[in-house]
Structures are given as structure tokens and as C-alpha cells.
Amino acid sequence: MSFTQWGSFQQLSNRIRINLQNGWNKICLSNLPNELTQIELDNVFQTEFNGKLVETVLDPNQYFYSRFSLQSETEENWTDWKKLNSRGANAQYLIAGDRLYQFYQGTDNKIYVQTTTDGENWSGITNLTGSITGNFEIDTIGDAVVLAIRGDNSKKIHTRHTTNGVNWSGSDSSNKETID
């Protein structure tokens, strides 16, 4: 099956969004493990990265799975689905430098990140925040990948950044409160 049924692909500020057409169905996600038989389309992510098509899904129990294809034009070379060590929701993805980043809010409401440089092998999980109740944003500024969250009580913006995907800065806070 080809990817002609996929909707439009859009990349904004290195953030990747997929807009699916109404007629899309689960048949595009071949060889799903039994635990992935009831996935929501909002929980499917796919991008071309380092010459591979990388796909991740979130199962109903909030576990992430990933696979890749060496040829982006065909599904015939997909690897088996691999259960990642991450569990959560609200995943956001970003490509910066030689890394694909997966940020997500864990089941404990902390923000975590893991990366891959080849689309196949994912790094260990790094905890970036304490428990939060709001949303988080990711983006790039120059060579840095930046995570920003709004404080629950102080309404200040808290950021952390990395230039290599491994070493993260401490939390920096804005001096002023945000407007609701």
C-alpha cells in the first residue's frame, strides 16, 4: 500500500504536524501488535528522518511503539514494532541537528525526552521537569532545542535547553509573570 492516503505533511519551526485525510484508515499501519489494535489517529506520528521513514504510535495504555522503513516510498521494508521504554501522552516531536526528539508528558505529569540519531535506536529517557498540570512547548533557537513550560502557581515561563541532545541546562525562569 502506498502513502497516497496520507494527508498533508507540515513542518513549522522544526515541529512536525500531520493532517490526516478523512478517508485514512488503520490499514496503513501494517503488522500492528495485538496491544495496538485500537489506536487513535491523533496518536500516530510519522516523519522522514536520516533516509528512513520513522513511525511511532501510542497504545491505549499510554505506551509508545516505534518502527522504521529504509525506503520511504514503500511499506515493504518496515521493521517490526518495538515497544519503547516511554509511557505517557501529549507527545511532541522535533528534528534538530542529527537528532529526532520525542518529548512527552509521563503518567506522573513530568516532561520527559528521548532521542534517536538513526530512527531505530532510542536513547534512554531523561526527566526534564517536576510534575506540571499545563502544556509545554518545544522549539529551536539557533543551535539550541528549548523546552518551555508555564509555572502552575507563579505563571512564570520556565525553560531548559540543550545543544547536543544529551546535556540539558538547569531550569531558567522568566522575571515576569505571563498574562492569562
Question: What keywords describe this structure?
Answer:
4-stranded antiparallel β-sheet, 7-stranded antiparallel β-sheet, mainly beta, globular
Description of the molecule:
The chain has 180 residues and is an all-beta fold. It is 0% helix and 48% strand. The chain has no helices and 13 strands. The protein has strands at residues 8-12, 15-19, 44-49, 52-58, 63-69, 82-96, 99-106, 111-116, 126-127, 136-141, 144-150, 156-162, 172-177. It has a seven-stranded antiparallel β-sheet with strand order 3-4-5-6-7-8-9, with no helix packed on it. Strand 7 and strand 8 form a beta hairpin. The protein is globular and about 55 Å long. The N and C termini lie far apart (47 Å). The relative contact order is 0.12. The model is unreliable at 1-27 (pLDDT under 50).
Q: Number of helix segments?
A: 0
β-strand number: 13
- N- and C-termini, Cα separation: 47 Å
The share of residues in helices is: under 10%
Biggest sheet, spatial arrangement of strands: 3-4-5-6-7-8-9
Please describe the biggest sheet, giving its number of strands, its sense, and whether it closes into a barrel: 7 strands, antiparallel
Q: What does the radius of gyration come to?
A: 17 Å
Give the percentage of residues in beta strands: over 45%
Structural class: mainly beta
pLDDT < 50 stretches:
1-27
How would the global form be characterised?
Answer: globular
| H/E topology pattern | EEEEEEEEEEEEE
Q: What integer is the average pLDDT?
A: 75
